[in-house]
Predict the structure of GDP-mannose 4,6-dehydratase.
Amino acid sequence: MTKSALITGITGQDGSYLAEFLLEKGYEVHGIKRRASSFNTQRIDHIYQDPHAPNPKLKLHYGDLSDTSNLTRILREVEPDEVYNLGAQSHVAVSFEAPEYTADVDAIGTLRLLEAIRFLGLERKTRFYQASTSELYGLVQEIPQRETTPFYPRSPYAVAKLYAYWITVNYREAYGMYACNGILFNHESPRRGETFVTRKITRGLANISQGLEQCLFLGNLDALRDWGHAKDYIRMQWMMLQQEVADDFVIATGQQYSVRQFVQWTAEELGISLRFEGTGVGELGIVEVVNGNTSTSVKPGDVIVRVDPRYFRPAEVETLLGDPSKAKVKLGWVPEISARDMCSEMVAADLESARKHSLLKSHGFHTSIVTEN
Ligand code: NDP
Ligand code: GDR
């Protein structure tokens, strides 16, 4: 029997990797995409299947987590074996600017899906995965953070995700639904959104190395994160839904690095030796040496990183470090890609793109680089 899955957030980083993964496993994959004024399916275009072709295995439905009737209709039509709720307003800083929208989509959107599954009588058939987050730990109460660590959310995003976490647990306990939370620590990839810090760094410095930008403006360089690779983490999302009994798991690498360290790795990859000078808002990243890399436009003495307070958050999560022991013992899951290797992969992808822009520019074609956020 072919299994079917419905993915909210299929056009995002995780949704795109998960869709690939499930298609390879022979699933029929349904995804919810939002209506936008321009195409927004770049991350899944390579697996797109023409709906006119016989038996397409990937089907997209227009929808939105804020629309109950739309979600109910899609669930009724698909009757999926598995639902992966990855859709969210997922940017922590943006959640301070759009707190109500974030709550509607990230918190109540989760309730809408769970309630639609129940309303349609699918609660014995459909297994539910909720994209929970290390942001729940916020102001950390224990190091490292594990499944039993108390939560202390520090942003409208994290508070909304706290509701989603508990409503998932509640529907499991109240209605016997197979519903689980993956408490995922930060995970990145070349498909990471351009405004999250890792991608902002790899893309920004790659552009600077090709003379397309002059300086990368960042916020808190001291923030510590446990960064893994999205490909490792989506594998775990699927594994969680294949157990006999639904449960919640922390997914992390158990290693922690600072934002400044990630900048250093990226510079290293580009053949640039960078010295940090000053502290806080005055801190600068200055080019020390360019190591035998003739293709870079920067020269010693150039200031290519500056701290800009506009990227500080009203309440910051300073440190996150996960303990993935439960996932290892119960599911045999271990991450395969290190943060350092992931950085290298991200730089390679962003450098290729920067070189394309630079080549176009040198031939007189107009090309624009969006750097906002
Ligand atoms: P992305 O921001 O890359 O993707 C988010 C997805 O949600 C996109 O497909 C987006 O659509 C969609 N979406 C946004 N708003 C709505 C809405 N109102 N209705 C329906 N869909 C919507 O996130 P990631 O792939 O990185 O993360 C996936 C999930 O995991 C998110 O819920 C995130 O909060 C959570 N998470 C992520 C972690 C990480 O480090 N990446 C760690 C822990 C949790 P569009 O493309 O149109 O914008
Ligand atoms: P985070 O990821 O908030 O952890 O949420 P992000 O990459 O945005 O920030 C990580 C840390 O870097 C600091 N930082 C900056 N962040 C951004 N975006 N831009 C900057 O210029 C900058 N400078 C420093 C931040 O202050 C922060 O401390 C991500 C999202 O994917 C969530 O959806 C997910 O739940 C969590 O990871 C786990």
Notes: The longest strand covers residues 127-133. Residues 8-9, 11-15, 32, 34, 36, 40, 64-66, 86-90, 105, 131, 133, 184, 186-187, 193 surround NDP (ligand 1) (CB under 6 Å). The chain is about 35% helix and 15% strand.
